[in-house]
Write a structure and sequence with these properties.
CATH topology of the largest domain: Rossmann fold
Number of helices: 14
CATH class of the largest domain: Alpha Beta
CATH architecture of the largest domain: 3-Layer(aba) Sandwich
Distance between the termini: 34 Å
Strand content: 15-25%
Helix content: 25-40%
Number of domains: 2
Structural class: alpha/beta
Shape: globular
């Protein structure tokens, strides 16, 4: 069932639809481009390529009395309450804040750090995507298929091991070292390893072919509202902790989906009314030399021009410190995507060198006392650059999303198990019967 509404050109907003949500539904999906409303589970609009956005019946954020991500149940596109200790954790920084001369620096720590109440055992905020996505899909009768550079794969495999929900995961050869779990893998995990010359985008292409097979369904990536709204809980948790929205939000991006998620969550908080009326400024960072979104944004372009913004992409990706931040087809240009999020928040994009990213990793561990992943080091480096350039003020409320960390800590508490591939694919065009 669809209902089309009249649209003002270029209006990418989150204001509640005038169409009533049916009484048995928690939310509707609204196309960010044409404003068509859908009341079924889907990934795409019938009319255009705009991202669909969840418009929830509940406009005021009321936390559930459960730990982890489940406390944000009202703004997650799932019916059953998610019960897990894993969820975003926010705390006020002292050491790093003092080092940078900031009075209101808040860390969104998304990893494993029990002393801080952080129990994401795969050590990546991709786990915030995995729980609602698998919960949303488990009653579809189909097997979920996704592509990953490594961290997303580990997160979905972990939730699959916990719940027994079948999932096919396609990972390039460069991501196999990230395929570990804090528990023994189960037969529900189907890990397809691609050749060493393949990258994340090759994995996406193979996953698209695989998802078209009988009994399979595409996970959807940035088009899946469960993934975006799961990641958006970082903004929700920080705002609840601070009792207000931040002035600035820092995160490293590969596809940029996390940035979109933060923007969407902030718009819901604006509609709530308890957390302020101004959207946080997005500070999104990429890792040199592969920075297609930075290049396009700096040039003032909505479109990424491949030959200009990412020449010889596989060579550039190979040279990255945080190679997981690589996506040759990010949701940058689509309505409701990264470009619109940056425009709506007066955002700033950063291109961070490998050396500065490594310094960011080391500085955070020295100051805050926990190890972090390279992408989080990219975010730390962008914050340092913003402070040095005067893009943030000492009194501003700042949220730094540490998208992964605590591996050293989880290794103390758990025996980590390697996930073995169930099939190999040398490239994205292999016959599907070889891998199913």
């Amino acid at each position: 069932m669809t209902i089309r509404e009249t649209v003002c050109c270029g209006n990418i907003s989150n204001h509640p639809s005038s169409i009533s949500i049916p009484g048995n539904l928690k939310y509707e999906l609204t196309c960010t481009s044409c404003k068509t409303n859908y009341f079924d589970n889907r990934l795409k609009c019938d009319s255009d390529n705009g991202l669909l956005r969840a418009n929830y019946r509940t406009k005021k954020l009321e936390l559930k009395n459960v730990p982890g991500i489940g406390k944000f149940h009202d703004w997650l596109p799932v019916n059953d309450l998610i019960t897990t200790d894993a969820g975003p954790v926010t705390y006020r920084s002292t050491e790093l804040a003092d080092h940078l001369g900031l009075k209101n620096l808040f860390i969104g720590f998304n990893g494993y750090w029990p002393e801080k109440g952080a129990f994401i055992k795969t050590c990546s905020f991709k786990e915030l995507e995995a729980f609602p996505t698998l919960a949303k899909s488990r009653n579809s009768g189909k097997t979920l298929v996704l592509a990953s550079a490594g961290n997303t794969a580990r997160a979905f495999a972990h939730v699959s091991a916990m719940t027994g929900v079948d999932v096919y995961i396609v990972v390039p050869g460069s991501g196999t070292s990230r395929m570990w779990l804090p528990e023994k893998p189960r037969d529900s995990i189907h890990f397809i390893q691609m050749g060493n010359k393949c990258d994340y985008t090759d994995s996406i292409h193979l996953a698209e072919r695989l998802s078209a097979a009988p009994g399979m369904q595409a996970e959807g990536g940035a088009r899946n509202v469960a993934r975006r709204d799961g990641m958006g809980t970082v903004m929700l948790d920080a705002s609840v902790f601070m009792k207000r929205m931040p002035d600035h939000y820092f995160q490293a991006i590969g596809s940029g989906t996390g940035g979109i998620a933060a923007w969407e969550a902030a718009m819901r908080l604006v509609d709530d009314g308890k957390f302020g009326k101004g959207l946080p400024q997005l500070h999104l960072s990429q890792n040199l030399p592969f920075v297609p979104m930075f290049n396009a944004w700096k040039a003032g372009r909505r479109e990424i021009i491949k030959d200009i913004d990412m020449p010889e992409p596989k060579k550039l990706i190979h040279e990255m410190y945080a190679d997981i931040l690589s996506n040759r087809e990010p949701p940058y240009s689509v309505p409701g995507g990264v470009y619109d999020a940056m425009c709506a928040t007066n955002g700033i994009m950063y291109a961070i060198s490998n050396n500065d990213a490594k310094k960011g990793v080391d500085l955070f561990e020295e100051m805050e006392g926990i190890d972090i992943f390279p992408p989080a080091g990219v975010a730390v480096a962008s914050l340092i650059e913003a402070v040095d350039a005067g893009k943030v003020k000492p009194d501003d409320h700042i949220v730094l999303n540490i998208t992964g960390g605590g591996v050293k800590r989880v290794e103390r508490d758990y025996h980590l198990h390697k996930i073995e591939p169930t099939a190999y694919a040398e490239n994205a065009n292999v016959p599907l019967e070889e891998i199913i």
